[in-house]
Amino acid sequence: MGIWRAARGIVVAREGAIDPCSSCLARPVSVCNVIPESDLARLAAAAVEAEVPAGRTFINEGEPADWFFNVTAGSAKLFKLLPDGRRQITGFAGIGHFLGLAVSDTYAFTAEAMEPLRYCRFSRTRLRALLDDYPLMEKRLLEVAANELVAAQEQMLLLGRKTARERLAWFLMDMSERIPAPDRLELPVSRQDIADYLGLTIETVSRTMTQLQDDEFIALEGCRQVLMRDRQALQDLAA
Amino acid sequence: MGIWRAARGIVVAREGAIDPCSSCLARPVSVCNVIPESDLARLAAAAVEAEVPAGRTFINEGEPADWFFNVTAGSAKLFKLLPDGRRQITGFAGIGHFLGLAVSDTYAFTAEAMEPLRYCRFSRTRLRALLDDYPLMEKRLLEVAANELVAAQEQMLLLGRKTARERLAWFLMDMSERIPAPDRLELPVSRQDIADYLGLTIETVSRTMTQLQDDEFIALEGCRQVLMRDRQALQDLAA
DNA sequence: CGTTGTGTTGATATTAATCAACAAGTGTGG
DNA sequence: CCACACTTGTTGATTAATATCAACACAACG
After folding, report:
1. Bridge-partner residues for A81, per DSSP?
2. Fewer C-beta neighbours within 10 Å, C or N terminus of chain A?
3. Could you give the percent of chain A with pLDDT greater than 70?
């Protein structure tokens, strides 16, 4: 339990319970033995590891997409910006997440560390060679990409068709499903981030949160601590 | 030009100009020689081909995800529904598109043919065997999935943060970029479908369309024929 | 203590949705 | 070829949801 399959910083998959402090944003995935122990050294040589302080971006939308990233510690928010500053957070990345997969000459989003973060990156050519040598790694990537696509479609339904109330309920359920004790939820993000993730304003998020509290679906114990009082009602709302 | 690399109905990639009648929804992709001619017969044996009449669904959200599809003719809309009937179209699929990739026991969306459609489908186990035998096919799938992910993020920005005007402008630009003569655009979808794709109502789509006409950005020649009069302005709006 | 950042609440404005009527195509049968 | 129904699209009036603008509360921090 809780053991990661890591190749000198390359976290390919992880298992079981989640470290609740640093990355409740990472979903658990089952371990697959993608890279033989004997090859770790060779792999490590191909990778560049680095640390990113909280608040710093390490992938910038529009810049040349030269690298492929794997998050090995911490977490990040991924977003797109409009020229006038409107922002849409498209997702969060925790330990084990892969970033910069797309075949495009520039990055399609910005990634900003939400807490001190470590990554391990490869040049695209190295990545290609890596995938040629480890077909299981490629399978894993395809699996990951396919799942993210499903999540993205879910998010489109939310952004295009759900009310503020439904969005919040969905968000709370989604967040709480990722942690061991899902009744007491510590929100890992600010109101602004929730708003930008759900396509709302901070004011609407705040108001809707108190509204859910008035309905006794949740109880707020400080603005980051949420007690889930009626999971069924929230689930029904989230639809 | 216009030659597809098809293995008895398996369209893996296509090249060059697009057949404007049946599938202006398919983006062109460069040809990659994924499957050797000699293996076509073996492949065809593993696949089930079928025809779907316009308006019929052939993938249903929530049903067991036993098959993996490849569209070989026609086009489809992909959508998710809420219990009360609200609908979000998450994308369109044309010739060469792959559907049902995700590792999940049920489909995450519904696919409905927009015109008579042909597909070629494999069981998941067959697919796995196929990918083991043709790593290039797997690479292609990863490439496709990664690109769709980028498109999905773009759509999230649109649904979460753009105005009706911006959404329409983006839609018109996006549609017109897929056809050979991008100044005269024949919309392949109804107002209802545009609305469900952009997270709006038909009324808002209709109003915004006439508004764009009043601004002389476009001219409507019948509700499906759009003359793009000021592509630059539309591009700026689409952001 | 002030200061700053973050969150909440209130008043008002704005956008898009809803409800409703009508117009324009499209297809069918006489 | 026309009358009719039927679907699809447009326009208008009104409402509802959320955004915007503004004030204030609260906590963290020097």
Report:
1. A87
2. N
3. 82
Element (H, E) at B33: none
Please state the rounded mean pLDDT for residues A83-93. 97
- Summarised one tens digit per residue, pLDDT across range A97-142 is 899 988 899 999 999 999 999 998 989 988 888 888 888 888 889 9
pLDDT tens digit sequence for B186-204: 999 999 999 999 999 999 9
Overall fold of domain B3-159? Jelly Rolls (2.60.120)
Q: Cα distance from B237 to chain A (closest Cα, Å)? A: 11
Q: Which two tokens stand for residue A220?
A: 């707020």
Q: Do B88 and A147 touch (CB under 8 A)?
A: no
**Chain mean pLDDT for chain A:** 85
Work out the pLDDT band at B134, boundaries 50, 70, 90: confident
Token pair 């460069």: residue: B30
* A162-238 has the same fold as A3-159: no
Q: How many whole angstroms from its chain centre is CA B191? A: 17
Instruction: Name the DSSP letter for residue B64.
Output: B
| Contacting residues for B145 by C-beta, under 8 A, at least 6 apart | A142, A145, A146, A149, B101
Residue A170 at interface with chain B, using a CB cutoff of 8 Å: no
B211 vs B208: CA distance, rounded Å: 5
Where is pLDDT greater, at A47 or B167?
B167
Q: Which nucleotides of C are covered by protein (CB under 7 A)?
A: 6-11, 15-20, 25-26
- By C-alpha distance, the chain A residue nearest B147 is A102
Better-predicted residue by pLDDT, A164 or B129:
A164
CA dist., res. B31 & res. B14, Å (int): 5
pLDDT score of A15: 45
CATH architecture of A162-238: Orthogonal Bundle (1.10)
Instruction: Kindly list the domain boundaries of chain A, sorted by start residue.
Output: 3-159, 162-238
Residue of chain A nearest B102, judged by CA positions: A146
**Is strand C within 7 Å of residue A25 (CB)?**
no
Work out the average pLDDT over B69-86. Answer: 94
pLDDT for B131 equals 87
| Section B93-117 average pLDDT | 92
